[in-house]
């Protein structure tokens, strides 16, 4: 009987210790500032609200999944659209100008041309060939480009390879930005 009471007491102490650790971890992560980010369109000839731009949507989902505060406010977008820039092909000067108009921590932009092609691999087989996406992240506080990459969907290791989905690419880029900024 005494052994059972000691076991219950030990389990209670263990439970309280684990719950206090979990609570303190949640408080420490919630006390971190949630970074504000805006994602510009990547596909040309697309108009606001950019619902067909799947690449932009994948990056937005990746940043949301990683805990960023995604800016989707129409008032902010109206300020951006008043500039009449080609948002799928921004220069560094244009992004610097946009950073003065809006209150965000990061501006994600880039472009994609001819996203995918089909190439013949012999007589009857065809393979999708994905072209790289130019991906840049501009830090509005430091006025610098924090992340600049050409993203490939296909990863090859000798004879082995993998094709990442758009959603995987979005999460990978959000995690890279998180690693760089922390």
Q: Strand fraction band? A: 15-25%
Number of strands: 9
Q: Which bin fits the share of residues in helices?
A: 40-55%
Sketch the major β-sheet: 5 strands, mixed
For the record, give the distance between the C-alpha atoms at the N and C termini, rounded to a whole number: 52 Å
The strand line-up of the biggest sheet is 2-1-3-6-7
Global morphology = flat
Mean pLDDT rating: 81
Structural class: alpha/beta
Spans of at least 5 consecutive residues whose pLDDT stays below 50 are 27-31
* Total helical elements: 5
Global Rg:
23 Å
What string, H for helix and E for strand, traces the elements in order?
A: HEHEHHEEEEEEEH
What are the salient characteristics of this protein?
single chain; 182 residues; alpha/beta; five-stranded mixed β-sheet; two-stranded antiparallel ribbon; 5 helices; flat
């Amino acid at each position: 009987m005494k052994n059972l009471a000691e076991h219950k007491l030990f389990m209670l102490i263990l439970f309280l210790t684990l719950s206090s650790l979990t609570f303190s971890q949640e408080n420490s992560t919630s006390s971190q500032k949630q970074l504000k980010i805006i994602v510009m369109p990547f596909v040309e000839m697309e108009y606001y609200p950019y619902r067909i731009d799947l690449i932009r949507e994948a990056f937005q989902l990746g940043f949301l999944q990683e805990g960023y505060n995604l800016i989707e406010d129409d008032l902010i977008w109206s300020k951006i659209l008043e500039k009449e820039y080609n948002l799928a092909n921004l220069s560094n000067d244009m992004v610097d100008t946009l950073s003065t108009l809006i209150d965000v921590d990061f501006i994600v932009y880039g472009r994609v041309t001819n996203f995918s092609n089909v190439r013949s691999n012999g007589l009857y087989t065809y393979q999708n060939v994905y072209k790289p996406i130019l991906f840049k992240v501009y830090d509005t506080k430091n006025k610098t480009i924090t992340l600049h990459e050409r993203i490939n969907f296909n990863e090859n290791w000798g004879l082995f390879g993998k094709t990442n989905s758009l959603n995987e690419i979005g999460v990978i880029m959000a995690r890279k930005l998180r690693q760089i900024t922390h």
